[in-house]
Amino acid sequence: MTDDAACTCKVSRTRDEFDLEMDDDSLVAAWQDGTSVRELTRSFNEALIEARLDRLDGSSTTWNRLPVYDALKTDDLSEADVIEIQRELERDGVDPDELRSTLISHQTMYRHLTSCLDASASPDPTPDERREKARDTVYALQRRTTLVTESTIETLQNTGTTDLGDPDVLVDIQVLCRECGYSADFDTALTEGCNCP
Fold first, then answer.
1. Under 8 Å between Cβ of 28 and 8
2. Do residues 53 and 18 touch, judged by C-beta distance below 8 A?
3. Dihedral sign, Cα of residue 159, residue 60, residue 153, residue 149
4. CA dist 124 to 54, 110, 131, Å?
5. Which stretch of DSSP H or E encloses residue 185?
6. What's the distance, CA 58 to chain centroid?
7. Which of 21, 46, 123 is CA-nearest to residue 38?
8. How far apart are CA 47 and CA 108, in angstroms?
C-alpha cells in the first residue's frame, strides 16, 4: 500500500480538509471484504456531507433526517423533494452546486484504491459471504426507503399538503415463490429457500 503522505488525489485532500474518519486501511479492508466501490463512494460522500453541515452555525435544520446525498447525486427523489432540500441548504448558506462539486465520483474512489493504494479487490466470495453481502445490500435499501418516505411525508406535512399526525414508516420485504407459493421474509427466504422439490 502506498504511503498516505504520497497521495494527493481528491479522496485524500477532501478527507484531510474535513477530517473524515475513513482511513485508507479501512477503505481497502471494506473493499476486499466485498463492499462495492459504489457503496464506499456513497459512504464517503455521506460522511463528507455530514461533516460539512456540522460546521454550520445556528442551523435549525435536522440534517440527519434529510437525504441530502440523494438530492445531490442520485435520481431517487422527486423533483419537489430535491428542490426543498436545495432550498434548505441555501437558507443555511450552503451552495448546493458547490457542495455537489466537493463530492467524489466512483471513478475517483476506484483510482484511489488501485493507483494510490495499489490495492485489489478480494477473490470470489464464498456462498455465505454472498448471502451476507446480499443481506446488507437489501437492508440498506430498506433503511433508505424508510428515510426517503419519512422525509417525503415530513415535506408534505410542512407544506400543509397532508396531515398524518406523527406517523411511523414500516418497510416490510416479503419473498414469494411463484412456483410453490411459499412466502417468507427476506432473511428466512435467503437462508432456508422455499418448498420447491
1. no
2. no
3. positive
4. 39, 18, 13
5. strand 183-185
6. 26
7. 46
8. 16
pTM over 0.70, yes/no: no
pLDDT in tens, 87-145: 989 988 899 999 999 999 999 999 999 999 999 887 667 788 788 888 888 998 998 99
Query: Quick one: pLDDT at residue 96?
Result: 93
Amino acid sitting at position 21: E
The confidence band for 47, taking pLDDT boundaries of 50, 70 and 90, is very high
User: Could you tell me the pLDDT band of residue 162, with boundaries at 50, 70 and 90?
Assistant: confident
pLDDT in tens, 130-155: 888 888 889 989 989 998 998 888 88
What is the Cα–Cα distance from 178 to 189, expressed in whole angstroms? 13
Residues near 47 by beta carbon (within 8 Å), at least 6 away in sequence: 20, 21, 22
Longest Cα separation, the chain: 63
Q: Where are the domains of the chain?
A: 1-122, 124-197
Which three cell numbers mark 109?
474512489
Question: Which residues are registered as beta bridge partners of 176?
Answer: 183
pLDDT interval class at 156 (50, 70, 90): confident
CA dist 6 and 48 (Å) reads 22
Cα dihedral 143, 21, 54, 90 sign: negative
Is 81 buried (19+), middle (13-18) or exposed (0-12) by CB count in 10 A? buried
